[in-house]
Design goal:
By secondary structure, the protein is of the alpha/beta class. It has helices spanning 108-111, 122-134, 153-165, 180-186, 202-208, 214-225, 244-257, 281-291, and strands at 20-21, 24-25, 31-32, 41-42, 53-56, 59-62, 67-68, 70-75, 89-94, 118-119, 139-144, 169-174, 192-196, 229-236, 263-267, 298-301, 311-312, 319-324, 327-330. α7 runs parallel beside α8. The two termini are 31 Å apart.
Length: 349
């Protein structure tokens, strides 16, 4: 693990556990964070880039452990995951903190802010999801989302193990910016991931996200090879990552991994520190047409007027899943195959 349980200082008054140590002592009282590619070397009394890992006397603590700042019972399609239990619900949890700093962030109040939070133990999170099932809701598990779940790593790890033991599914909605060792430790407990590939150039990541592209691609490749269900989202920002050539490179890379990986193009709207006009609808349609030359399932989000969120059979074209907003109407897909032509359909349910 990325903390030493033996170093835990015990419980806070009222039964709330103290923040969990994470990382290892460095030289001169500094602490080295091993979770993401930044490898922050944090001085005593300071926090890393993500703002949620603090050096206390040479030991790095995850100060957001269990601090839940956002909670909702969401449609699975909101993640967006279109090919993983379509039409179901999932209990979604989020905490403050992010290891990227995107100028166009859609959840910046959580990722870059200091929102109020309540302590939610892993056992409590699992019990909440189970109660949704008992109440008759089609809740299949827990999603760690809204901000960056890898910056909530220890909590997600602990909760995901308990959720799996309880028969629940675990979903990550993530920027994919994580080192290989923590990713491999967590992946056995994760059933599905929606990974943001924010662009297909390193320059975009450097200029607009304060990060780099290669670790994200490695996360996608690793998750796919480990048979985790993966879907990809790219927020198309006009003039920055929406060129036909870049979209072709992105879809070609994904197709080389597996042509049935669903790709979601999402429409950008001005937010946080970026004030460009919204993505033109024609840019979104063009990107989808380009990607469909290599991929079997390509969707458009945040643009309902384009009516590009339905799932059709890539073999015969039969409409299999009709989506209107978060309302889902599904045809019977028997044995994972199209009921009309028998084509294998990449849908988990």
């Amino acid at each position: 693990m990325f903390y030493e349980p033996g170093l835990l200082p015990g419980d806070k008054p009222g039964g709330e556990p103290d923040d969990k140590p994470d990382g290892k002592p460095g030289s001169g009282g500094r602490a080295d964070c091993l979770v993401c590619p930044r490898l922050c070397h944090i001085p005593p009394g300071r926090r890393g880039f993500c703002r949620v890992r603090e050096n206390r006397d040479g030991v790095l603590y995850a100060v957001n452990y269990g601090q839940c700042a956002a909670q909702a019972l969401d449609p699975m399609e909101k993640k967006p995951l279109y090919h993983f239990y379509p039409g179901s619900l999932i209990l979604s949890l989020g905490a403050a903190g992010c290891n990227l700093h995107c100028g166009f962030c859609q959840n910046w109040q959580l990722a870059q802010g200091d929102p109020p939070a309540v302590y939610l133990a892993p056992e409590q999170a699992v019990a909440l999801a189970l109660r949704q099932q008992e109440a008759g809701h089609p809740c299949v598990g827990l999603a760690y989302t809204y901000s960056e779940p890898f910056m909530w790593y220890e909590y997600v790890y602990d909760t995901a193990i308990l959720a799996r033991q309880a028969g629940l599914k675990n979903v990550l909605v993530t920027n994919g910016y994580i080192n290989e060792a923590p990713l491999l430790a967590l992946l056995p407990y994760i059933d599905a991931m929606n990974i943001d590939v924010k662009a297909f150039t390193d320059d975009f990541y450097h200029r607009h996200c304060a990060g780099s592209l290669a670790p994200v691609l490695h996360t996608v490749e690793t998750a796919v090879k480990r048979h985790c269900h993966v879907e990809i989202t790219t927020l198309l920002v006009p003039g920055l990552n929406d060129s036909e050539a870049e979209v072709a490179r992105l879809s070609g890379w994904l197709a080389a991994l597996h042509p049935e990986i669903p790709l979601h193009f999402s429409r950008y709207f001005p937010n946080y520190r970026m004030h460009l006009p919204p993505t033109p609808l024609e840019s979104l349609s063009r990107a989808r047409e380009t990607a469909l030359q290599k991929l079997r399932y390509v969707y458009i989000g945040n643009a309902p007027e384009l009516d590009a969120s339905d799932t059709g059979c890539p073999g015969c074209g039969k409409l299999l899943i009709r989506r209107h907003g978060y309302s889902v109407r599904s045809e019977a897909i028997t044995g994972g195959r199209c009921p009309a032509c028998g084509e294998k359909i990449n849908i988990v349910h």
